[in-house]
Amino acid sequence: LTSAIAAKSGKAEDGLAKPILGAFFTQESLVLMSLERSLSTSMGWRLDKILAMIAREEYASAYGGKGEYVTVKGKLPGETIQLIDKIINEMKTPDPGKKQLVKALEDKGHKVNINHYSRGELIELCERKEATIPPGRRRPNNEAEIELIRHSINQHETSTSLEEIGIRVDVFIVDDIEGVNYCAESKTIKPDKGQLINEKRDHLKLIALSMMKGTTYVTTNGEDLDVRGNEIKPILGTYYEAWGPLVESNFPTIDTFFEKGTQFLSGKWLWELVGKSEDTYEEFMSLLWEIHCDRKKDLEKMIGSTFSKDVSNIGYLILTSKNG
C-alpha cells in the first residue's frame, strides 16, 4: 500500500502522500498544516533565544536557543539515582480502583456491592470502617522531593559509585542577587507521558547536582560558566496557556509529575519570571502582532490565501487583554 502511494505522488501537499489526512482535509488545508508544523519546529529554539535575550536585560546573564544551549554536568551517587527512579515510579503507580477498595473493605469483614458506590464513596467508606486503603499515586511535592534528595546526598555524597551526569537545558538564567541558576525547560501544551517522565528525571537530577557543589559545573559551547556557588532551580514551562491568558489551564498530564507554581510555570507566569514583570507576556504578544501586521501580505502570498480580519482582531484582543 505504501509503495503504491509513494509511486503515485511524493508531494505531501496533494493529499495522495497523506492518504488518511487527505481523506478529511482539502489540499489547501494540508499545505497550511505543513507550514504550521515547519514554523512550530523552528519557533521552539527561537523562543528559547528570545527568552534568554529578555532575561539578559534583568539578570546577570542568560543563555538559550540554538548555539547557546547550556549543559549541567557532574556526578551523582548511584543510590540517589535509584531514589529518583523510585519517586518517578511511584508517580506512575495508578490510584486504587473500585475493586481494590472493595477488597480492602472485605478484608475488614464488610460486604459491599461495587455497583452501588462511586470510587469516592468507597474511599469514604474505607475511612469510616478503618479499612486499609491501598497506596496510590505519589503526588508531586517540591519540598518533599528536595528533602528526600538532600537526605540521600548527605548519606552517599562520598560514595565510590558516583555516576557521570550531563543534562542540557533550553534556557539557563543566572541570578547572582538571589544566588540561583534557573534551568528552564520549554514544552508544548500537551507533551506526551514519556517526555514528561524523562523531564521529571532530569528535573530531580538537576536538584541533586545542585547539592553536589564540589563536582557540578556548567558549560556552554565547551566553555565553563563561573556559577558554581549558585543553587540550581529547574523549571518546566509552556510559552502560553492552553485556553488563552484569561483562563488558568488544566494540564492533567503535566500535573501528574510537576507541582504547578514551583516546578511548573505555564504561559504568562513563565514570561513573568524571565522578564521580572507581570507585563512581559502582553508586551511580547504585542510585538508579535506588530510583526503580523508588517508581514501579513508576505504570509498571504506564502499560503495563497487571506487572513480574516475579524478573527485576527479577536485573537489579538484575547492575547493582550488583561481584564477580559
Describe the structure.
With 324 residues, this protein is of the alpha+beta class. Helix content is 50%, strand content 16%. The strands form two sheets. The chain has a five-stranded mixed beta sheet with strand order 1-4-5-8-9, sandwiched between helices. Strand 4 and strand 5 form a beta hairpin. The radius of gyration is 25 Å and the shape is globular. The model is unreliable at 5-10 and 306-324 (pLDDT under 50).
Structural class: alpha+beta
Provide the residue-averaged pLDDT: 81
Query: Order of helices and strands, N to C?
Result: HHHEEHHHHEEEHEEEHEHHH
Number of helices: 12
Strand order of the largest sheet: 1-4-5-8-9
Radius of gyration: 25 Å
* Largest β-sheet summary: 5 strands, mixed
- Residue stretches low in confidence (pLDDT < 50, at least 5 long) are 5-10, 306-324
**Percentage of residues in strands:** 15-25%
Helix and strand topology:
Layout: H1 2-8, H2 19-22, H3 27-58, E1 61-64, E2 70-77, H4 78-92, H5 98-107, H6 119-128, H7 142-156, E3 162-169, E4 171-175, E5 180-187, H8 193-211, E6 217-220, E7 223-225, E8 231-238, H9 252-257, E9 264-266, H10 268-275, H11 280-303, H12 309-320
Parallel strand pairs: 5-8, 8-9
Antiparallel strand pairs: 1-4, 2-3, 2-6, 4-5, 6-7
Helix pairs in contact: 4-7, 4-8, 5-6, 7-8
